[in-house]
Amino acid sequence: xxxxxxxxxxxxxxxxxxxxxxxxxxxxxxxxxxxxxxxxxxxxxxxxxxxxxxxxxxxxxxxxxxxxxxxxxxxxxxxxxxxxxxxxxxxxxxxxxxxxxxxxxxxxxxxxxxxxxxxxxxxxxxxxxxxxxxxxxxxxxxxxxxxxxxxxxxxxxxxxxxxxxxxxxxxxxxxxxxxxxxxxxxxxxxxxxxxxxxxxxxxxxxxxxxxxxxxxxxxxxxxxxxxxxxxxxxxxxxxxxxxxxxxxxxxxxxxxxxxxxxxxxxxxxxxxxxxxxxxxxxxxxxxxxxxxxxxxxxxxxxxxxxxxxxxxxxxxxxxxxxxxxxxxxxxxxxxxxxxxxxxxxxxxxxxxxxxxxxxxxxxxxxxxxxxxxxxxxxxxxxxxxxxxxxxxxxxxxxxxxxxxxxxxxxxxxxxxxxxxxxxxxxxxxxxxxxxxxxxxxxxxxxxxxxxxxxxxxxxxxxxxxxxxxxxxxxxxxxxxxxxxxxxxxxxxxxxxxxxxxxxxxxxxxxxxxxxxxxxxxxxxxxxxxxxxxxxxxxxxxxxxxxxxxxxxxxxxxxxxxxxxxxxxxxxxxxxxxxxxxxxxxxxxxxxxxxxxxxxxxxxxxxxxxxxxxxxxxxxxxxxxxxxxxxxxxxxxxxxxxxxxxxxxxxxxxxxxxxxxxxxxxxxxxxxxxxxxxxxxxxxxxxxxxxxxxxx
Length: 695
Ligand code: ADP
Ligand code: MG
Prior knowledge:
Elements (H helix, E strand, L loop, with lengths): L4 H4 L3 E5 L8 H12 L4 E5 L5 E2 L2 E2 L13 E4 L6 H11 L3 E4 L10 H14 L2 E3 L5 E4 L4 E4 L7 E8 L2 H14 L3 E6 L8 H9 L6 E6 L5 H10 L4 E5 L13 H5 L2 H12 L1 E3 L3 H13 L8 E5 L2 H13 L9 H8 L12 E2 L6 H13 L5 E7 L6 H15 L5 E6 L2 H12 L4 E2 L2 H19 L12 H13 L7 H10 L7 E4 L2 H11 L3 E6 L12 E5 L2 H18 L7 E6 L5 E10 L3 E8 L2 H4 L4 E5 L4 H10 L17 H17 L4 E11 L4 E3 L2 E5 L1
Parallel strand pairs: 1-2, 1-5, 5-6, 6-7, 10-11, 10-12, 12-13, 13-14, 15-16, 15-17, 17-18, 18-19
Antiparallel strand pairs: 3-4, 8-9, 8-11, 20-23, 21-22, 21-23, 24-25, 24-27, 25-26, 27-28, 27-29
Helix pairs in contact: 3-4, 6-7, 7-9, 10-16, 11-16, 13-14, 14-15, 17-18, 19-20, 22-23
């Protein structure tokens, strides 16, 4: 038995705060359990009532003569700790705290108190601030939502209660089949990760669908998603506030929560829904159809217009159409008139009847080139949509293969009815061609996730001790920011290539260092108070002579003193001048939920204006890093655009992977990292500026 069974599959339920007032939530919960057909025991609890809706009512949960698996708590927040205590004494195993008035209104203290009491007794909590649990397999509406959702195989978990109730109704109008619908609320105890783990083992669940505002324990979420045997799809709401907040590093200012969640979803193999419609449409497809196991999508249509719309959508959603092979075209020609088109989209023409649909779909599915088929139909005067969908269904059956099919019927009432028939027969139907394609794209996305190999991070050999010492020293100084020489020492200890350099305390010393390194050199101010060195006139590049170096030293020091008279100046950093190359940025921020991350972007306008950056949760392998690099819009800049030679992408990937290890190893200390710029060459790279901020 799973320890969460008493919560999600209870044999007996008490409603603490059951009410005789028909308008009260505490009444609705009793009615819902009765009306949904729940076969377990139902025990209303109310100190002032003896009977509610024909059920015996107990004055205290302690009076119930039987075992209680689950308690729905619908008393005002201030009474919840006392009720929780009683539930513990009674030996209740799970609590659904419907009551609100906890952390969502700033009462973290009350929430914590309740969790502590529950822990003492080993009780698990869903909530507080939830609608409840709906289960079709158990015919259990343990919630104040109006009715059980349209039955099916998707488990839908929502962080918003109001949205859950709205979605409940919509599952019926869209015919999106649901096994469980769960309101997760404040996640004081059970969170997304716990539920995903649990419903992975649930036989009635084929897909897990999430409405997420923010996860708790991001690392666990990621691990659980990665291990999931079932598809997970999520709609993430809420844009970044953190991005706008002042951040000391460039990476910090680019790291909106949206980007971090995108990263986590990718790494966790979670299909991302772009909006609520997509969440519904794609949940249906993932529940009813197998994943698309290749990139070859074939569209079959009776109308050119919808074919074009679907073609556009295919490109937009990442499954662009390809030319069908000749033998497939020959097969398609058999099912169309002379003036039809056997190309992709296959246009059966407006004369298409049931037989043409049936034949072309069957032959297409059987053909090894085809990985998935989107069928489009425009209602015509001489065809009956019902007849057409029966043909579609028959073709799928006769094909004998397990390839995904989605359908869009464009038309009126008859088409809608026929579409519903399709859904009831396990074939996803949508009103618009682009929705049918988007659903197929979700099936492809899931297919790609399944094909992706597991990336096992193998740590590099590094000088961890050295980094610990530097960090300890900076902390002992009472500083948060490492100076550039310190940060570069840290990078070097993890094998990131940095230019040679040394700190000069005087102009004479600077000249001596420059001679050792060789001209030209770059000189920069070193002061814990000056983080953006150029802003302070603290950077001089391309210094070619002893005279240049001497002059630069004096100027840099005087500029810095002008910029910040209180700045404590360690000296001037004299370093090798890296040759010209392509500027990129590698960085990291330590996210509150997911911990250390890695960022990559191209330098200059690409990050400043276009914000063309991508994130992953650290650590990452060099191979994963390569995937990130290829993902950015400006990737072509690195592969040799405008006649330039391709740059060393492998070296960037290696540096990113090493940096990911650094931020992971020192996750308790490092808050933000910026390597900006990292200059990349045809062979190798150089990290010319380094910034590390501690927690
Ligand atoms: P900051 O970002 O604090 O203003 P940087 O160290 O990034 O200072 O220096 C500013 C610019 O000077 C860099 O963006 C880069 O173009 C150039 N630069 C800095 N160091 C070097 C170097 N060692 N070799 C070549 N160019 C450099
Ligand atoms: Mg810089």
